[in-house]
Please model this.
Amino acid sequence: MPQDRNADNGGDYASPACMANEIAPDYFDPFAVDPQQARDVARWRKSERARLIAARAILPAAMRATNDAAIRAHLAALVGAPGGRVIAGFWPIGAEPDLRPLLASWHEMGAQIALPVVEVRAAPLVFRRWTSDTAMITSLWDIPAPPPDAPALIPDIILLPLVGWDGAGHRLGHGGGYYDHTLAALSPGQTIGIGYQGARIATIYPQPYDIALAHIVTEVGPQPLI
Model:
């Protein structure tokens, strides 16, 4: 990377595939103070994103299952009694942590569970109600999502998938910028990044649009943030 800088860049549904940054190539323009810096940032993050996704993909299935169970246990302890709250989760793609058993359990305990949907490009996500009985539809990248007639909800807690993360609570995502827009628009009460310990990096070189998360949870537990 030519300079010590970088950035985070989606598609028609949440947790977009890696090529999703091609959907909104002008994403950086409203935010970038220095266009050259924005380009340097984008190149660095694209490379780092690819590296981290590849490393995650080769984890043995048994190890991933063990790590996911640990993440769910730590997350359940952090959130506590979920009843009466709206919790936005995510459908796992590309070897992301699988929170679905915990989401279903929270629903049984009285929480309303939502999954994110991209309905307008380069705009905040819409969170639509999900239960284990929801008849899911298939998105552009074969990502299951709630149907358009599922009620839209405003989350009290947003769980965000992490491709990478740093000790300041900044998130490296898939590159569409949808969570950046969402956090800026909604200012939810609690934001929790979900990822693996091995995805920690020294810094994501945060840009003005990067909003630090309140918590990050890995298989090791909630991480101390500076």
